[in-house]
Amino acid sequence: MLNTILTAILFFSAASIVALVLVQKGKGADAGAGFGSGASGTVFGARGARTALSRATAILAAVFMITCLALTYLGTRKSAEPQSVLDTLKSAPASTEEPAGTPAPAVPDSDKR
Fold this sequence. Notes:
Structural class: mainly alpha
Low-confidence stretches: none
Shape: rod-shaped
Oligomer: single chain
């Protein structure tokens, strides 16, 4: 159950990181030229887009890393194998003593002399 929840969080954070990175401007490229003289830069303001998108990307990257580490930890942790009554009987050491209800073997007549 926990693995499923963490995997879903991992998937959505990865998809969100990809979407946010694709929306952001590159450092050296002028993405506004493709939309007509910097008009795309005014959607979030002069600095607002860079800081909000960068901050959201950093937060989602941290969530992604934490869920990756949690899934790795849960995947490497050994779980106890289920045991039943039959498993405990099979693993019990065999005793060399005979049970109380078993009769002793009969001694042949030739050994009585």
